[in-house]
Design brief:
five-stranded mixed beta sheet; four-stranded antiparallel beta sheet; 7 helices; 34% strand; elongated
């Protein structure tokens, strides 16, 4: 694959330009073939452990977008991959940015490492040192469905984005039905090993139960490949759970007629007698509290 001519003009002064383009193409073709071991030869030695440990997403195609010169021995390479979004099981075109460096043995991929600022904070004691968090190597949005309960007066529901990657992620867009909901928890960057809360509140006054909608969360710039993720979350609002129906004695007809603000109390039913005729003894009443006996004081002589 050839890189776009206009974008390549930005890197016209790079040494061994043709060799860089060739190596980039070979590297991405190997990742497309899911041959990560062979792709390792295009990674600089200092970055190979990080390359082995990081998760490589599944994608069905890639295309070059351009090369930008950062110095005579460093270039920012942009490609776009048609990546499988694990949450929705659909493909989505994602941009990828990577740094390639020129050494004695030609051009190689360089992966980011811990910044000097982060290392300084770790060893200078300016921040409290915390136990290392276990990273899963993936992004997760939980729970997988969002429920807003009819009996909850806040009309609010939340999901949590868990960043199990070794780099931060950025929530770039959140889509929802703005005629029915409002976003209450705005999220930007989520650091490695951290989680962020995303909350929406129902604004309507519909009385129908168990209505459905959708929430989409777009996350970019955090995977080691520089791509992103899209989470498609089903929303169930005005939800009356089976537990709530049982607790308040709501059959299907009563649940359908229930309106906001209706007074109701939990229904406590007396236990049914055993069908085999066994006698049920009444519960033993609690013992009365013991009376304390005052000890007479001895009069001092």
């Amino acid at each position: 694959m050839n890189f776009p001519l206009i974008l390549l003009l930005l890197a016209a002064s790079l040494p061994q330009q043709a060799e860089l383009e060739k190596r980039i193409g070979s590297y991405w073709d190997l990742l497309l073939a899911q041959d990560k071991n062979a792709a390792l030869q295009y990674v600089e030695p200092e970055s190979r452990n990080r390359f082995i440990q990081r998760r490589t997403p599944y994608f069905r195609s890639w295309e070059p977008m351009g090369i930008e010169e950062q110095s005579e021995t460093k270039a920012l390479v942009r490609v776009r991959i048609d990546r499988l979004m694990e949450a929705s099981r659909s493909f989505y075109k994602m941009p990828v940015k990577e740094v390639w460096v020129l050494g004695d043995e030609g051009w190689h991929l360089q992966l980011p490492q811990l910044t000097s600022k982060a290392l300084g904070e770790l060893y200078s004691g300016r921040k409290e040192e915390k136990p290392a968090k276990k990273l899963t190597g993936e992004l997760r949005l939980l729970p997988q469905s969002l429920k807003i309960h009819f009996l909850n007066q806040t009309n609010r529901g939340s999901v949590f984005l868990f960043n199990g990657l070794s780099v931060p992620v950025q929530v770039t867009r959140i889509e929802y039905d703005k005629e029915k909901f409002i976003l209450e928890e705005k999220v930007g960057e989520v650091a490695s090993g951290e989680k962020a809360k995303i909350s929406i509140r129902y604004l309507g006054d519909e009385e129908d139960k168990d209505l459905t909608s959708e929430l989409r969360v777009f996350v970019e710039g955090g995977s080691e490949e520089g791509g992103g993720e899209m989470f498609d979350v089903p929303v169930l609002y005005n939800h009356l759970s089976p537990a709530a129906r049982a607790l308040f004695g709501l059959n299907e007809a009563r649940a359908k007629e229930l309106e906001r603000g209706d007074p109701f109390r939990p229904t406590v039913q007396a236990p049914e007698p055993p069908k085999d005729g066994t006698q049920v003894l009444p519960p033993i009443p609690p013992s009365p509290p013991k009376k304390s006996v005052a000890t007479p004081k001895t009069q001092a002589e």
